[in-house]
Amino acid sequence: MSGLLREARFLLRDRGALLWLALALLLSAAATGFGIAEVREQRATIAALLEEDARDRADAISKQEEWGGAAYAAFHLAYAPPSDFAFAALGQRDTAPWLHRVRMLALEGQIHEADTKNADFGLIGRFDFAFLAATIAPLLLILLLHDLRAGERVAGRHDLLVATAGAPQRLWRPRAAVRFGGLALALLLPFWIGAGIEGAGLSKALAASGLVIGGLAVWGLIVVAIGRFAAPPPVLLAALVGLWLALALLVPAVSRAAIETAVPVPDGAEILMLQREAVNDAWDKPKAATMEPFLARHPEWRPLGEVAKPFEWKWYYAFQQVGDQQAEPIVTAYRKGRLARDAAAGWAALLSPAALVERGFERLAGTDTRAMIAYEDHVRAFHADLRAFHYPLFFRDPPYDPVVFEGLPRYRPLP
Amino acid sequence: MSAPLRIAREEWRLWARSRVVLVAALIVAVLLAATSVLTALRLAEEAERRTVRQASAEATFFSQPDRHPHRMVHYGHYAFRTPPPLAAFDPGVDAVTGQSIFLEGHRQNTAMFADTRAAADLGGFAALTPANLYQLLIPLLLIIIGHGVVLRERESGTLSVLLAQGQAGLAIAGGKALALAGVAGLFLLPVAVLAGLSLAGGESPLAAGLLVGGYALYLAVWAALVLAVSLWVRQRSVALGVLVLLWLMVALIVPRIGINAASAAIDAPGKIESDLVMLAEERKLGDGHNAADPAFEALKKQVLEQYESESVEELPINWRGVVASHSEAKLTALMNTYAERRMEREAAQARIVTWFGLASPTLAVGAASRTLAGTDLATHHRFLRESEALRFDFVQGLNDLHATALTYADDAARSSDPEAEKRTRINAASWRLLDSFRFVPDPAEARAARAALPLLLLLGWLAVLGGAIVAGARRLAP
After folding, report:
1. What confidence category does residue B71 fall into, taking pLDDT thresholds of 50, 70 and 90?
2. For the segment A351-373, what is each residue's pLDDT rounded down to a tens digit?
3. Is B262 on the interface with A (CB under 8 A)?
4. Which residues from chain A sit within 8 angstroms of residue B147, using beta carbons?
5. Taking CB atoms and an 8 Å limit, are A131 and B124 in contact across chains?
6. The dihedral of CA A380, A381, A382, A384: what is its sign?
7. What one-character DSSP code corresponds to residue A400?
8. Cα B190 from Cα B212, distance rounded (Å)
9. Which residues contact A307 (CB under 8 A, 6 or more apart)?
């Protein structure tokens, strides 16, 4: 204990070390602040759109006189609100869409719509707390710890200190512990304040803190292992920076390239082309060519499945659905491919502490690939609810009465 | 042989004997070569595939059967953004924006299927591309190799010997600068080769030359920074620590802070958000599918007067087609207003990020590199504008057919009368009105003009650091 206090006093007089810690504190505050601002912005967007969406739908329906027209005109907002922990890791929310406006038409033509933000954002990436903790913090730790012993060697005190300390561990351990603790605290303090402001659960904040400390501990062990070599500080530092570069940047980038080669994903453009061909060909095909596959999937409408006129709404929406059905094999392969890539990335992340921490944060924040795919599945389920609501109206064709639309399915975000 | 050259030669000799330097340089060289080859192959394949797809989309459109022209408006068409030759070096926003757009009536779709959506997620680091390696890795290599160029002489006591022999500090600094420049020059080879290959792909020498020049400037900035720190700091470990910290700030932190700042300063709503606001306005324009919509009363009056007719049934042209054409034009004007507003905001954000180049040469060279390669945000915006023009042309062409090639009576009865429906199908030869579309980036002069600001920022950095080197060299003392 006295060792820790002594080292803490030393640390307070060591301007170089204090600079690193102050920098860590500043970066953490910036990352947390930006993260909270972004998440609030997204929530405000969703709130504003929800109001606008309800108004727009009522307005659209008010101008219609038949069931099919109303279904064609009414859009429904689907969204994935940022979790209370998303401020720490925006993850896939910058590239994958978290907003959709869907209607009764073929879903494949709608769900892949990207709500594009500025492309530079996705390219350069954001400075969020997960990036700081996973990638930047290890380098700060290296800069703090690399000259524990070597610094004393350069100052000419090393042998004297080791000789008077009795056990050398009693000398180095408190020093390393104080610097390590200082860095962890400087990183985590703003983050904890941010978690408090956002109301992120205690369990998540603790798990995230564990991730940060665990990740740093791995790097700390690496530094200690390298530090045993009696090389001059610059050589040690160069070696450590090289290791950091390999583990934090190159291994993830190379694994990513390897995974994307090894696990092919069908080209998304194929989905759209197939779906579009299917939907548009239906206009020229005999009605039975559409109604057969539709009724095979929805046998309950077989008694009312007769199409007599050149155009009927039930046939129109049937071929929208059949277009989706034709694209199903590719859609399933696309979804499976993405999940397989993500699973492979989970294994590959074991090779890189930085990737592991970042993925851990995204998992906690619900901004990882799996969460985004779960959101897409949820939108699909909502579209199925919409179809279940509308099909009785199209097939039974009761007299038009807009009051029925008060019973329209409402989109509820995933908890 | 002049003194600086001799000093530089000694430095090269030392590096050639140092295992650390050789291993580091070798690793970077292998990585760079492998990445260059792989990226070039991938992009060539990608360009090939998109060109084929563009042609096949056109062929498919032409081969559609006889139809009602409005069916073809909804059948739509695709525009593909073919990557330019220099994308093999810097793919830029290609992976983020998606590569194709579905063009149809009444809507402006977004570009779809960005590669990043199906990417394996391993954290926040960008994909391996030659441009990324140049921007991040080679500076770090220069730091590891060169942080001690002057300090080593100081620590081994040879600096006082050199100075005592009457070597000016400037000559020593000049020699060390030459030594670092030699290494940087060696590492410019891959970008020079890739730029040379792009000439074969039809890239202009101006853009390719400027790209190599931009990276030469960037590496010169880093070499100057390394030398300046080595001159001003008195301990090697401190020098290395300071340089690594600077690298961390300049290469990783400031660019991302720039993104955050741009995002916080300018709220650029996403497309879904602005579409919703737009829809509310759009509903006031009337529904082009419904010729009886009261929104078209004024138009009706005007057209009836023009043809001296009493009612739409008497008109020599198909009133429904007139409405379709009129409402598409109005709607497109509205959509373009919103699209331009969105792009303007994104461009404003990009300007903020570019100005962060004052604090980060990495950001500046990235902006210049993407611009010169034709893979920057502005080029993507041009793609959006051009594909929109293509969309509007073919949709309005079809609407003209709708107005002139069908009768109003048939068109109105087609949903209930199979015979009338048959008469509303027009000959498939008419689909030839679709223009062929091949996307090419801006001419090299325009790209060079856009890249001028970031390149000037790099020059400014070099000038400031040059001043710091001269000042440090003048006060060089053992």
Report:
1. confident
2. 999 999 999 999 999 999 999 99
3. yes
4. 234
5. yes
6. positive
7. P
8. 10
9. A287, A291, A314, A315
